[in-house]
Specification:
With 279 residues, this protein is of the alpha/beta class. It has two domains: 30-89 and 124-275, Class I glutamine amidotransferase (GATase) domain (Rossmann fold); 95-120, no CATH class. It has helices at 2-28, 45-58, 74-77, 104-107, 126-137, 156-162, 256-259, 262-275, and strands at 34-38, 63-66, 82-86, 90-91, 121-122, 141-144, 164-168, 173-179, 193-197, 201-204, 211-216, 223-225, 228-231, 233-242, 245-250. The protein has a nine-stranded mixed beta sheet, sandwiched between helices. A two-stranded antiparallel ribbon has the order 4-5. A two-stranded antiparallel sheet has the order 7-10. Strand 14 (233-242) and strand 15 (245-250) form a beta hairpin. The radius of gyration is 23 Å and the shape is globular.
């Protein structure tokens, strides 16, 4: 009886070892997970989610979405390997008129004077910016897109890891995006492409060798804001290592049509894979 009990125990042990062995590849092959902080007054979260679902569906990679900017913290980021941001740095605690998608509703109210002027405030706390900085320093991938450079205007740790800051943009109009002379796996072999989007002008703070994309209004239309004459061109994307992690910024992103431009979609795919150190 003792021997038989011992035999069964050994069989059970062998089965447990086999089960563990079989599950190991599945664990090893688990896809990284992304978190995206999306949506603001001027950027409807629905179009952003529709846009990014196509990207991450093609990558077969799970992504979670949140609009709760107050929850951004080291704890929130801990389960993820990739963090995306497509929202600006402003909130309106006192409310605002709208909807902004059809400005006549706001501009032509008969009683517009009855409503106070909207007053934006900036939402990102310094400790939230530090949480993003630490996330990347410790090995995470960070992909800020489009108007997320606006957050840099008021949060120093965020700007340090993100790499630059928003300056402004002209009305939505066609412009070209092309790779710079700086060779990079994200842009290798890709030609220029046209989008009808907001051409964001941004200041870039770091090594110019990391700038991989430039936007240009090839019709010769320039942009000026705050007394700065910014011409027809702006940096439109950069990529670099930061601590143990990586950062990519791309400026296009105000419309689904622009997000789904085939060349830009390929850039986004490669950006995610490069951030995860798959290429």
């Amino acid at each position: 009886m003792t021997d038989r009990t011992g035999l069964l125990s050994r069989r059970a042990m062998i089965g447990a070892i086999a089960a563990t062995t079989l599950s190991a590849p599945a664990i090893a092959q688990a896809r990284p997970r992304a978190l995206a902080l999306i949506g603001d007054r001027y950027h409807n979260p629905d179009y952003i989610r529709v846009s990014l679902d196509k990207l991450f569906g093609a990558l077969d990679m799970p992504i979670d979405y949140t609009m709760d900017y107050t929850a951004l913290s080291a704890q929130l980021l801990r389960p993820y390997q990739l963090f995306l941001v497509l929202r600006d740095g402003m909130i309106w605690p006192g409310g605002y008129l709208g909807p902004d998608a059809y400005t006549d509703y706001e501009a032509k109210l008969e009683n517009a004077d009855d409503f106070p002027a909207p007053k934006p405030v900036f939402w990102m706390k310094q400790e939230q910016g530090q949480a993003v900085k630490d996330f990347v320093s410790n090995g995470g991938g960070f992909y800020p897109l489009h108007n997320s450079s606006h957050i840099s205007l008021t949060c120093k740790p965020y700007r340090d890891v993100m790499g630059g800051a928003y300056v402004g943009h002209p009305p939505q109009r066609p412009f070209q995006v092309h790779a710079t002379a700086n060779a990079h796996p994200i842009t290798a072999g890709l030609g220029p492409f046209m989008v009808n989007d907001e051409q964001h002008y941004v200041d870039y703070d770091k090594d110019p060798r990391n700038v991989i994309l430039e936007s240009e209004n090839i019709d010769g239309l320039t942009y000026e804001t705050g007394g700065r004459k910014l011409g027809t061109k702006s940096p439109a994307g950069w990529a670099y290592d930061y601590g143990k992690g990586r950062v990519v910024f791309t400026a296009v992103g105000h419309t689904i049509h622009a997000m789904w431009n085939p060349t830009y979609l390929e850039i986004q795919r490669r950006a995610v894979r490069w951030l995860l150190k798959e290429i």
